[in-house]
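S1.2 Input.
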Amino acid sequence: MAMESCSKFFGSSKPYLAMISLQFGYAGMTIITKISLNQGMSHYVLVVYRHAFATLAIAPFAFIFERFVWYSYIL
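S1.3 Output.
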């Protein structure tokens, strides 16, 4: 009974937890951007690094979750 109520709680709070983690991510990105620009990093280099990091972070999810979609189109 307690596991079921705990599961319902976490199921209903997923959007809130996702939003909180997204806000922490934005705050961390802002802090890192501010520190790196204050130390003299070029704006263009910062943009390239941010895009490269985002590509490396998201690419595995795209390969895993989109792999089966391509198979359905081929067959």
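S1.4 Remarks. The chain has three helices and no strands.
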